[in-house]
Amino acid sequence: MTLRCLPLTSTAASIAECTPYLREILDPTSQNVYYPTAKDTQSLPPAAQDTTPSPGTSLVIATSGTTGTPKLAQLGASQLRASATATHQVLGGPGAWLLALPPHHIAGLQVLLRSLAAGYDPQIQDIRTGFSPHGFATATAALLERTPDARHYTSLVPTQLHKLLTGDPSDPHISAAQEALTHYDAILVGGAALSPDLATQAREQGINIVTTYGSSETAGGCVYNGRPLPGAAVHIDDTGRIWLGGGTIAHGYLGLPDHPAWQKPGWFRTDDHGHWEEDKHREEDPTGADKVLVVDGRMDAAIQSGGLTIFPRIVEEHLNRHPDIAAAAVLGLPDARLGEKVAAVVVPRSVETAAELTVSALREWLIAAGLDKTATPRTVIPRSSLPTKGIGKIDYRTLREELQ
Hints:
The structure is a single chain. The protein is an alpha/beta fold. The protein is 28% helix and 29% strand. It is built from eleven helices and 22 strands. The protein has helices at 12-25, 77-91, 106-117, 133-146, 158-165, 172-181, 196-204, 312-319, 351-354, 359-368, 396-403, and strands at 2-8, 32-38, 59-62, 72-75, 95-99, 123-124, 151-156, 186-189, 209-215, 220-224, 227-228, 232-236, 241-246, 267-278, 291-298, 303-305, 308-310, 325-335, 339-348, 379-382, 388-389, 393-394. Strands 6-5-7-8-9-10-11 form a seven-stranded mixed beta sheet, sandwiched between helices. The chain has a four-stranded antiparallel beta sheet with strand order 12-13-14-15. A three-stranded mixed beta sheet has the order 18-19-20. α2 (77-91) packs across α3 and α4 crosses α6 (172-181). The relative contact order is 0.10.
């Protein structure tokens, strides 16, 4: 069993060159194992050198590492095919996919593998210099022209969807991109929390948004719109921790056979806290599920302030609804009295409104919006941007280091 680099870029030429190897990843009889990389980093990470993958592995892929050290999840053809089959089953059938994400991360790679598993060559949007509305509209038009009788899908991260939906509609490129969104039978959105307001705006425009939850360890999203995919399982233990099981779960981490995330056979222990809520759209759910999964946030990111546990994700969702905030990140900073205090790092929408984003103004606005006052920030730090990693996730580890 040989572990090989698979250099990928978001170009049609690169994907065409790598397609035979991508098909091999989906072949349960293959003896090769591939590690996808960006084309300018064609080397195995130290953790993968001189380490033999577990039997049945065809893909080794890095986790995002936004809050810790990246690890290498081991996936086999059976897990990847199970993911593709379940995805197409929920979305309404196999289809052709547009790749608008980096192909060496699990979300982008799964776009390629799902399309190939369905019998289609994927359409590629070149995002090497960034994601553009014009590029999205052009690539969508090419996909529709090439596969007129197919169902059409794509995957985006929230920042991409935000860029398309909040742009100036008088700009012809924005207008064309917004029109392109309506031609997809489904658009998967994951990698980070999606603002409820943005999801509502998309659906009001006739765009079929499907929110996803999962990770490299689960072959990508395994929970769609709060419901486990067919063959997937979700368990919430007594501490509120989310466990994921089923046919898409990885074989563990390469070189870390005793990692606690895999202490329960057949299950992956996440670092996320969650709960079940009544499904308000139960009538529209073909599975008949009466509850949906709600992810509160990462357990290792929870802020312990004055004896209370505060999940930053909930505070961030409220802040991202503020009309003068373009992006927000929330984390705990040391405090002599409280242990930790809630700190909000915000990117103002304009220089003119930045001065109005004071602690008192934001606390008052958040309380009026329904957030408990104990979770409101005691420190507000304006910045021009937030550090990101992977496919657009906020890099909290880097942000914390910069603040401290």
